[in-house]
Amino acid sequence: MQNPRLASRYAKSLVDLAIEKGQLEVVRADMQVLQQIAKSNPDVVTLLRSPVIKPDKKQKILAAILEGKVSNVTSMFIQLLVAKGRESNLPEITTEFARQYNLLNNISKVKITTAVPLDAAILSAIKQKVEAGSDKKIEMETAVEPDLIGGFVLETDDRLFDASILRDLKDIKKQFAQNIYTPNIK
Q1: What count of other Cβ atoms lies within 10 Å of the Cβ of residue 80?
Q2: pTM (two decimals)
Q3: Which runs of consecutive H residues, i.e. helices, occur in the chain?
Q4: CA distances (Å), 49 to each of 2, 39, 165, in order?
Q5: pLDDT per position as a tens digit, 119-168
Q6: How far apart (Å, rounded) are the C-alpha atoms in residues 45 and 50?
């Protein structure tokens, strides 16, 4: 992150404004759209960070990109960012907004990485197990990494549960490297 304190303050202001206007869910959807645009199109991020492009030109380009996709509150917020010269921090602000929204609504993000894609039944069973061990609502994110060979890696908040075959193989390799059953030959 370029400036986490700045992103946190702007995101907090947007959360407060959205709550005041009664449009928190609408603004959340807008922030998800902006995050998706930033992830899928690096040219937009480059545009936002470019010191060569004038603010009024950035304003027009962003208005054309986001026309009909975001609410009036979000549109005005983006105009404020451009006017203040903070548009380069928009990707960080959207991420921080999502974090603060999840905190406000007691939602925990859980990421599960497997070697092969999971079907819906297994995914819902895992979600139920994770929810049973927590008092928070769970938002699942899945990823596929064939290097795991089998098993899964579950990440939630500040915890990591690695039940992959790759980790088991690395542990076995480490044990063989430090074989305590054979004396060291000098």
Answers
A1: 14
A2: 0.80
A3: 4-21, 24-40, 42-49, 55-66, 72-84, 90-104, 120-132, 165-177
A4: 11, 15, 42
A5: 999 999 989 988 887 888 999 999 999 999 999 999 988 889 999 999 99
A6: 9
Q: Are strands 159-164 and 137-144 parallel, antiparallel or unpaired?
A: unpaired
Question: With the C-alpha atoms ordered 32, 8, 80, 72, is the resulting torsion angle positive or negative?
Answer: positive
pLDDT per residue as tens digits for the range 7-30? 999 999 999 999 999 999 999 999
- The half-sphere exposure of 24 on its side-chain side, counting CA atoms within 13 A, is 14
DSSP class of 134: -
In angstroms, the CA 64 to CA 76 distance is 14
- Residue 160 tokens read as 């990591």
